[in-house]
Every structure is written in C-alpha cells, then in structure tokens.
Amino acid sequence: MKNVYRIGFYGRMVLQIGFQQNIRKLKNDSFTSEISFDMENRSYFIFTFFFFLCLSLQAQERLGLSIGNYSGVNGLVINPAYGTSLPYSWDVNIVSVGLFADNNYGFIKDASLLSIIKNGGNVEFANTSDTENQTAPNALIADYNKGKNFYYAQGNVHIMGPSFLAKMKDKHSFGLLTSMRAMAGTRKIPNALGYYEFEEYLKEQEIGIGKFRIAGAAWSEIGIHYGYDTEENLAFGVNAKYLMGYEGFYFGNKKKTGVIKHDNNVVDFLEANAEFGITNTYASDQNFNGIKKNGSGLALDLGVTYTIDRDYDDGYLLKLGVSIIDLGYINFNKNSEVHEISNVDLFSLDLDDYQSVETYDELITMSNNDIFGSLDVSKKGSDFSLTLPTALSLQADYSINKNLFVNATLVQHIPLGKNRLARTDILAISPRFEHRWFGAMLPISVLNYDQIHVGLSLRLAYLTIGSENLASLFASSSDFTGTDFYLALKVNPIKITKRKKNKKWKSRDARGVRPRGRGKVKCYF
Prior knowledge:
Blueprint: H1 9-28, H2 30-33, H3 39-55, H4 63-66, E1 90-103, E2 106-108, H5 113-118, E3 123-125, E4 140-144, E5 150-160, E6 163-168, E7 172-190, H6 195-200, E8 206-209, E9 212-229, E10 235-253, E11 257-261, E12 266-269, E13 272-279, E14 295-309, E15 316-332, E16 336-344, E17 347-350, H7 360-372, E18 379-381, E19 384-387, E20 391-399, E21 404-413, E22 426-434, E23 438-441, E24 444-447, E25 451-454, E26 456-460, E27 463-467, H8 470-474, E28 482-491
Parallel strand pairs: 3-4
Antiparallel strand pairs: 1-5, 1-6, 1-28, 2-4, 5-7, 6-7, 7-9, 8-11, 9-10, 10-13, 10-14, 11-12, 12-17, 13-16, 14-15, 15-19, 15-20, 16-18, 20-21, 21-22, 22-23, 22-24, 23-26, 24-25, 26-27, 27-28
C-alpha cells in the first residue's frame, strides 16, 4: 500500500482524513472486490483518480441549462443580468442536478462511464504486480499519464433546489435561489508527484516536491436576485447569497520540499513547510450522523449584458455579457482545526506504520509523535476560511435567425485568497436551435486549455438533459478521464407574456427582446 504516499505524506493526510470512510468502503464492497489490480496500486489509483471522480457530483458550467433565451432562473448562475430578459412573467426551477469530474493524472483506457458500469468494475491496473489477476477476462485497463508539466484533478456538484425568478413591469427582475454544492481539486500537482515521474527517481536520491495546494468543501446556499433593465443600452443584475458550510479542508505545501525514499519504505523529509485545515466532525467516530453546520459565509454574483438589435426585424443580433461569479468565502469555525509543520529540518517516516490508521485523531497523534516527538505540536488554530472558486465570465450570443444561435462563453478562474477552491477554466463555442417548447445545443469546450470536449443538450418543454462531455458517457474508443452530465426540471407559464406598449416601453417578443425602430442599438442584462 506504499504507493498511496507518493502524493506526499501531508497531501495523503488531507486526502485520508477527509475521505477515508469512502475509501475503506470501496475496499470492502462488492464493486471493488472485482477490481483485479493489486492492493497497493489500487489504493493509490483510488486516491489520485476515483477520489476526484466520486467526490464531485455542477457540471463544468452546465451550459445547456444556463445559456439560451429560455434558461430562466438557471441562467442567473452564469450571469445574473440574464434575469431581466426572461420571456415569461415567472420561471420556477423544481430541481436541477449536475456533476462534473475531470483530471489529467490517470485514466481508464478505451472506456466510458457506461462500459465501466456494464463491466461491473472489472478493472486491471496496467503495471500490476499481482500475477494471479493479470489475465482477468474482459478487464478494463487503468493507467497514469506521464510527461505533463503539471497535473490537475477537479470536480464538483451543483444541485439547485426550488428557485424562482419573476419579472415586473418589463424592467425589474426578482428571484430566490437555493442550492447544495460540493467541490474539491487542485490545479497544479507538481510533475514530481506524477506516478511514473516518481517511479523514475532512484532510491536514496533527493526528490524536489514543488509548491501546490488542494482544497475541498461542501456547503449550501440561499440567495436573492435583483436585476434592472435600463431604458437605454444597459441592464445589470446581482445575486447575494448566504452560505452554510458543512465540511471543508485545504492543504498547502508552501515551499519546495526535499524527499528521499528508501527501500524499506522509509521516507526522509529534508525540510517541511506545510499547512492544512480541516473540519473534524468525524475525527474519532466514523459513523455518519447527519449533516452538521460548521461555518458560514457570504457571496455575490455580478453581471451586465449589452444587446444590439437587428436592423430588419424583431430580436437581437448580438448579446454580450460580462459577469463575476462566486465572489465570496466560507469561514469554518466549528469542529475545525488548523495544523502547521514548519521549521523542521529533517525527519523520517516509516510509511508502513501508518497502514493501520483508522481515524483522523490517530493520524494526527502518530504524525506529531514521529515529527516533533510530542503531541499536539502541529495544531495552530481552530478556524479557517476558504475562498469560493471566483471566476470572470464573458459571453457573446449571436443570432443567425429567429431559432438559430451561436454562443461563445469563457469562464476564467480568478485566484483570490490563499486557500481557495479550484475552478476549471472553460472556453466554449455552442451552436443551438431553440423554440418555445424544444431546443438543442452542441457545446464544444476546451478545459484548462488542455482537453477538448464535445457535448449535447436537449430540452423538451420543462425538462432539460445534457452533457458537456458526451464521449465520456458512451464512447469506449477514448480514454476515460472523468465525466459530466446534468438535468433540470422546471415550470413556467404556457404562454409568453406580452406587455402593452406605452410611450417608453414596448412589449417583448418570445425571446425577451423589446423591438425598436430600424437601426437602433440597445442593451439587455
């Protein structure tokens, strides 16, 4: 089981204390009992690959739900200014669920989510040393990537609960938003912690582990929305949210650390400067006794849009949007701990001694004794804060005709705060067909400027279902590095709301656009 420590002992501590219950269950249940690669490789693979996949149940940005003239309350997630262009008097989200997971660290060769399920979890590690199981029939092959400058692994869940959006006087929009979210990941795992890179280092040779950070959290949100559509060329919107934090963790290797590995599974740390914080709700008792609130926070989404009308008919030619999303934080101040390991020049850890660790308390006690020769030395505080995955988003929506559109959306993370949740960078081009009762979108997206995904979203009346990584669900001809899908069920008026014309304001058409005279320019938000 020694390979699990290759991500660095402290990094492993964070992963274990946050998710050891799930990993232990995976080792014992019927699903993983069929996995044919050996225990040490299986454990490492679970930690560095399936950990991020299983944790993350928000699709990338759920473009099929948030983009389009009929997105309604779901569109507020990407740009709160979209609320004023609602083509109905109101829109209600009953429930929407999205999950996203992706990494460039490991993969399952020639597999899809469907083929993995059909195969009953029969997966064989490419470099297994368990000769008895190397020829498992119909086994899928799991392996690691090699040669990346940095590795990343990210995933998140976004469940939007009952939420509504209402429009008043064709000028104001109001809304209430509720959601549950969970995410974890890191954007830059040092190259030296790659599986094969670490393997190639010789015994008794110093390995330099560069700076990196990883963080994760689970929380819920309740928010209010307001949007204002000016008579001129601008409209804007804001979502103000109160956050309730349940579980969270972070780990930071604050400077380059020298590590030497030995044949007897002992690792020397030449210098250490690391810090981690975690909620310890289940530190000594692994039984799940319900969700507990361990912190709170605040967040804002801000947005604006600008729309240019067509010269020759109703509807817009181009709609431009700019937004800042997830600007906020969560402070965990209950059942929380912060530990620091610094100014320690040299210490050794026998990794075999930690294989029997069952709880977070045991891990902290043992590591403090090994590193400092005393207990409770590493603890430095009882609260910590995590910055939300703040991002800048740019949107451009071009209308080809009444029903055909092409959208371009950029979501670029903004690195705010020392301990922050990671967000995937996305650049997407999404042609779509939309009608009042049905629509289809084909998003083509680039993730972290590294991987290209093609998706599909379908809407029929009040139901939308889609994925921004369609191949991961069904195509077994490519490597499986993660998956993505979402669905939403909502309700709104059967008829499009039309207002009576007056001197200043004219009624909107089915796409939420107020027609004006030929050649005029206007903005919507």
